Amino acid sequence: MISFNYETDFELADEPKYEAWLSEVIKSEDKTEGEINYIFCDDEYLLQKNIEFLNHDTLTDIISFDYTMGNLISGDIFISVERVKENAADFGVVFDEELRRVMAHGILHYCGYKDKTEEDEKVMREKENEKMALFHVEQ
């Protein structure tokens, strides 16, 4: 079950569409969907989580807490909407695209993908692009 929670005034426009897409992302990796909670927040909220749980005093766009057991994908994914907006502007992409990249990124970590080395980061980017292509935008 995928749920969306909001600690800021942002809300996804079409939760069922995002839920269906994320379920497809999980299936495409031959994993089983467990309980996944997305928590959308602002920089300050996520900074406090970063300090409290990871002892990092830095801004970030995503923090994920992985409760995956075997192939059952579960966890809490905190996303700073403020940071995603800024990153989208910095990368020259639209906000919705960057948000989907970050949302897929959290799931990919649960599937075992890392991003600490250059090679791992390259694989992660390729996987993000592959998973973002599963999201169908109506024209």
From TrEMBL:
Cofactor note: Binds 1 zinc ion.
EC number(s) reported in the record: 3.1.-.-
SUPFAM superfamilies given in the database record: Metalloproteases ('zincins'), catalytic domain (SSF55486)
Coiled coil: none
Protein location: Cytoplasm
Gene Ontology biological process terms, A to Z: rRNA processing
Molecular-function annotations in GO: metalloendopeptidase activity; RNA endonuclease activity; zinc ion binding
Gene3D superfamilies, alphabetized: Metalloproteases ('zincins'), catalytic domain (3.40.390.30)
Keyword terms: Cytoplasm, Endonuclease, Hydrolase, Metal-binding, Nuclease, Ribosome biogenesis, rRNA processing, Zinc
Protein's UniProt keywords contain Cytoplasm: yes
Domain of life: Bacteria
Gene Ontology CC: cytoplasm
Family annotation (InterPro entries): MetalPrtase_cat_dom_sf_prd (IPR023091), YbeY (IPR002036)
Pfam families: YbeY
Binding site for Zn(2+): H105, H109, D115
Catalytic class of the enzyme: hydrolase
Keyword Nuclease (UniProt): yes
UniProt record similarity statement: Belongs to the endoribonuclease YbeY family.
PANTHER family found in the cross-reference section: ENDORIBONUCLEASE YBEY, CHLOROPLASTIC (PTHR46986)
Name of protein: Endoribonuclease YbeY
This protein's encoding gene: ybeY
